[in-house]
């Protein structure tokens, strides 16, 4: 199986990086393949927009999904985005590794989502949830938090972690068709002692093994041209 | 009163821009002051990290909140961030205007949140929710969606809009102490006819008037040094 880990932390010596490395090592130890998109190391540009495209469909008025659809068919995404789309398409398992900032992914990861997961490449009209193009694949969030477990409850003020992660887990991952497993959450990451860190790393290795278990290799994600045939011409033009 | 509108849309001719302009015109018509942070026009860099700081506290290991705290006290944020912090501190009312991408703000706006709303400047240990440093101020999200109102229900798959917006409304705005009013939501923005657009613009002008009504001018947001005195030295160092 192919595993893609997208890492969004500005410090290579961080616990987030250690978690990423632990997952990769575990994947390879079990004879599978891992790729990493270390967004800060790549200096991945976060803001989605005109810079996503080598060629513009409409130079006068920028409509994001129309440009994405045109680029999907013409192959005119800039290389930084096309490369990530290729990684995503060949991954059977997707892990997003990030510190929770203001209740969500850091901007650099949100930008990866906004830019890479383009209309016409990763979804189209009517291809959502059970009909998502990534069905048969698995995804997991692995997040570190500043807050304690108590904070992530109704009484603690932030609300349960699944409520906090709803937009990423449901409106992004499940929307694309992924089977979304429970998130791996390291609470109070800045204040962990070495024993707690080791315990979290062990638990993450176990979660990684579980991700790989009993997953039949899924069929390839349809190409942009196959997607167009799948959803029909009319649906496409109505959106753009 | 001072109103800050943060706009996150890549196209100046978009409906998001029109909404932003309508709010600004209404604020000024009523004799108040409006500022706009048009993030795409500013080419605001989205990824929070080392580039936020003119001087680094620890060049070997990057810990975001520690660097933010040091920069807060030394005044060493880069100008692009310091300028936004000044705008935010003098705003009595904050409006975030954006298209909902994957259930959340576009990365460029998430980056504004991550970078501008720094530890030691906009919050510190124990200054959350009712004790937030921005209490007495009001905030509203104004979002456009691709999905119809039905989609934003449990039956429609995305869940109610307040559930989708929970991280931004609650873990960000309410956390800082803002009174968060109901979001202004333009559903199915790409498919609106001129009459529907006009109706949404009118409704947004009304919401803007409501934001300005009956808000006593709040006391200034504490300075970083006042915040340090407020929460005490011990609390500060425990976090960093």
What is the mean predicted local confidence, pLDDT of chain A?
Answer: 95
Hey, roughly how much beta strand do the residues of chain A contain? 5-15%
Poorly predicted runs of chain A are 234-240
Structural class of chain A: alpha/beta
Count every helix of chain A, treating DSSP H or I runs of 4 or more residues as helices.
Answer: 9
In this structure, how is the largest beta sheet of chain A organized? 6 strands, parallel
* Helix residue percentage of chain A: 40-55%
Shape of chain A: globular
Order of helices and strands of chain A: EHEHHEHEHHEEHHH
Number of strands of chain A: 6
Oligomer status: homodimer
* Radius of gyration of chain A from CA coordinates: 18 Å
Distance between the termini of chain A: 36 Å
Which chain pair has the greatest contact?
A-B, 47 and 48 residues
Name some characteristics of this structure.
homodimer, 240 residues, alpha/beta, six-stranded parallel β-sheet, 40% helix, disordered C terminus
Task: Describe it.
Two copies of one chain form a homodimer. Chain A has 240 residues and is an alpha/beta fold. In chain A, 40% of the residues lie in helices and 13% in strands. Chain A has helices at 15-29, 64-74, 79-90, 107-116, 161-164, 166-176, 194-212, 224-231, 233-239; strands at residues 2-7, 33-38, 93-99, 138-144, 179-180, 184-186. In chain A, strands 1, 2, 3, 4, 5 and 6 form a six-stranded parallel sheet that branches. In chain A, helix 4 links the parallel strand 3 (93-99) and strand 4. In chain A, helix 1 (15-29) packs across helix 7. The longest helix of chain A is centred in the last third of the chain and has 19 residues, at 194-212. Chain A is globular, with a radius of gyration of 18 Å. Chain A starts with a strand and ends with a helix. Mean pLDDT of chain A is 95; it is low at 234-240. Chains A and B meet through helix 4 and helix 6 of A and helix 4 and helix 6 of B.
């Amino acid at each position: 199986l192919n595993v893609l880990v997208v890492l969004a932390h500005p410090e290579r010596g961080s616990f987030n990086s250690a978690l990423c490395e632990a997952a990769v090592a575990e994947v390879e130890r079990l004879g599978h393949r891992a790729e990493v998109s270390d967004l800060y190391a790549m200096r991945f540009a976060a803001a989605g927009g005109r810079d996503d495209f080598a060629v513009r469909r409409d130079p006068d008025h920028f409509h994001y999904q129309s440009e994405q659809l045109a680029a999907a068919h013409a192959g005119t995404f800039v290389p930084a985005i096309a490369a990530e789309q290729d990684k995503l398409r060949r991954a059977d398992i997707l892990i997003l590794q990030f510190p929770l900032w203001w209740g969500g992914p850091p901007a650099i990861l949100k930008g990866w989502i906004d830019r890479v997961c383009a209309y016409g490449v990763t979804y189209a009209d009517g291809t959502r949830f059970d009909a998502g193009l990534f069905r048969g694949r698995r995804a997991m969030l692995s997040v570190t938090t500043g807050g304690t477990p108590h904070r992530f409850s109704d009484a603690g003020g932030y609300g349960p972690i699944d409520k906090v992660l709803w937009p990423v887990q449901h409106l992004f991952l499940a929307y694309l068709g992924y089977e979304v497993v429970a998130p791996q959450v390291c609470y109070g990451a800045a204040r962990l002692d070495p024993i707690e860190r080791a315990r979290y790393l062990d638990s993450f290795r176990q979660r990684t093994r579980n991700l790989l278990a009993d997953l039949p290799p899924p069929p390839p994600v349809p190409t942009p041209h196959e997607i167009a045939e799948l959803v029909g011409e009319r649906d496409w033009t109505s959106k753009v």
